[in-house]
Amino acid sequence: MQRKDWDTYFMDIAFMASTRSQCSRRHVGAALVQGKKLLGTAYNGAPMGVPDCSEAGCMLVEEYEVRVADGKEELVKKQRCVRTIHAEQNLLLFTDREDREGSSVYVTDQPCWTCANMLANSGVVEIVFHRPYLKDNDKVQELMRSKGIVFRQLAAYEPPAGTEADVTP
């Protein structure tokens, strides 16, 4: 058996953390790494002690998003769940600022705009993700560039068997 490289090893850990999620829409995991030392993991879910989506159902809000297709703008209605705290937010809540300084975050999914803002202000110097989140991609990429944070996708990465949940897009 061939030894895994560090990116694969830490992304595997992020995917393992995502298996704790009870969200019916998306399972996301994150890992905080300083050098080659694992400092913490987190996943998306309801606040501790509060019923999660599997127990109480999703708490959906409707939003409208402008999409451009074939040069035409169209308004698309979307739903998102607001019961869940994102994995990146939980990671920041449960790790110390001192540990985050100069660290890397491995996350199963590209951070949304809100999480990207929080990570940009957290002291991390690198964010590594696997699955893209196209909605916020351009502005998140620009934010990371302006902050000097290494922001890279592991596109060729294959998650460990049994860690990718069949969830609603």
For the CA atoms, what is the radius of gyration? Answer: 16 Å
Uncertain regions spanning at least 5 consecutive residues: none
Query: Per the principal axes of the C-alpha atoms, what is the gross shape?
Result: globular
- The count of strands amounts to 7
Tell me, rounded to a whole number, the average pLDDT. 92
Structural class of the helix and strand makeup? alpha/beta
- Helix percent reads 25-40%
In terms of DSSP E residues, the strand content is 25-35%
Largest sheet: 5 strands, mixed
Give the strand line-up of the largest sheet. 2-1-5-6-7
Q: Determine the N-to-C terminus distance.
A: 34 Å
- Number of H- or I-type helical stretches: 6
- Topology as a string of helices (H) and strands (E): HEEHEEHHEHEHE
